[in-house]
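Quick one:
INPUT:
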């Protein structure tokens, strides 16, 4: 393993450790030392890869969203029939609430952003990038179906993202009231309605 590969491995280990520790203790309750210890590295190794916790957190969030985007891309790449595409997209959207750690990371980020202007600016930029990606998927779907979105694609993307995040948080906080079935039905029904899917 060369130097670059070793550094990349260290960086990924720190990101994975941060995701685990932040989900458990919150961003404010997590120190650089906590992250380094969880990853099996020193404090110095942390600062060799990141300027600070905020820097790591933004990259962690970008990686997290990147995984979801890749799933969307794969659905579009691997599906030819439009009805099959609609069904797969609705099913995927209906399951997004299941990743509780994902939800906790983004909630922690928003809480941190409320109190820290510099981080808020960076998070806002990242969220706008996320909206742009989802807007692109909405526009692509509408091109394939020949249907115009009921509202501007960007607004629809914001709505889809916001509802998914709200349902995920409600499911984590009160899984008895918002159980798997409720969360799945709400998300699939909303997605099917706004994307004008039959059935």
């Amino acid at each position: 393993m060369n130097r670059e590969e070793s550094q990349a491995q260290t960086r990924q280990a720190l990101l994975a450790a941060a995701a685990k520790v932040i989900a458990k203790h919150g961003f404010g309750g997590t120190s650089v030392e906590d992250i380094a210890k969880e990853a099996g590295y020193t404090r110095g190794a942390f600062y060799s890869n990141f300027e600070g916790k905020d820097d790591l957190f933004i990259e962690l969030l970008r990686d997290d969203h990147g995984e979801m985007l890749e799933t969307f891309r794969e659905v579009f790449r691997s599906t030819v029939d439009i009805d099959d595409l609609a069904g797969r997209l609705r099913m995927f959207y209906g399951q997004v609430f299941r990743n509780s750690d994902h939800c906790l990371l983004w909630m922690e980020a928003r809480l941190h952003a409320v109190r820290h202007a510099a981080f808020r600016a960076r998070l806002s930029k990242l969220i706008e990038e996320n909206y742009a990606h989802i807007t692109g998927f909405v526009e692509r779907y509408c091109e394939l179906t020949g249907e115009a979105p009921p509202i501007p694609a960007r607004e629809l993307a914001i709505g889809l993202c916001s509802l998914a995040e709200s349902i995920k948080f409600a499911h984590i906080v009160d899984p008895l009231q918002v159980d798997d079935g409720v969360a799945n039905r709400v998300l699939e029904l909303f997605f099917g309605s706004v994307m004008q899917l039959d059935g």
